[in-house]
Design a protein that fits this description.
It is a single chain. By secondary structure, the chain is α/β, with parallel strands linked by helices. It is 51% helix and 17% strand. It contains seven helices and eight strands. Strands 4-1-5-8-6-7 form a six-stranded mixed β-sheet. The structure holds zinc ion. The site of zinc ion (ZN) has 5 residues, from loops.
Amino acid sequence: MVIIMKKIISFVLLFALLSVLYKPIINVSSQQSLAQKVIVLDPGHGGADDGASVGKVHEDELNLKICFALKEELESRGATVYLTRTDDQDMTRRDYNYSKQDDMYLRALKIDEYKPDLFLSIHLNSSNASAWGSQVFYYKKSEEGQRLASCIHSKMKDITGTKKDISSCSFYVLRATQSLGVLIECGFISNANERGQLKSSKYHKKLAKAISDGIEDYEKALAG
Ligand SMILES: [Zn+2]
């Protein structure tokens, strides 16, 4: 009898312990702001295509690093995140006969394959040495794209200080995809000041937070 009582008590204690341990976990996950959202990140360029370059600083490498920081931030808010590339290769994954056209075609297909709630193409800009500032682009025929761009822009400008506004465009990656997406130029690699920031992993985290806040604002407006 004593043994049975002891067993019952230990079961009760174990149950109490488990409910204390698991309850907070369940609560946190259901409150995560981007739970059940599927987001594709598209680090621009890759492989033979470095994108914009200044000396040994290449756009394709920094785009990838910013996307890794974004993935971490978005996942911490409950989103499921996919990247179109996770290494220094283009979409064909062949190391001969580089073709921008093939790369872009496969990129657009890959983005749509994940059926994301939204996607972000991440790039860095390049111009003369005095140009600077982040800019968010949306497809000219997409009203949702414009709303998303506007939400992301208003959070990003707190970090980048940009004076540029959002802009409509007909970039292939936005035009050829079925999914809602925007293209973000995070800053100018050709500007010495901004290049210094864009190389820093701390800055990548700041950008990732700001962009994620913008996505949250967009989702809240949709839900509300
Ligand atoms: Zn680019």
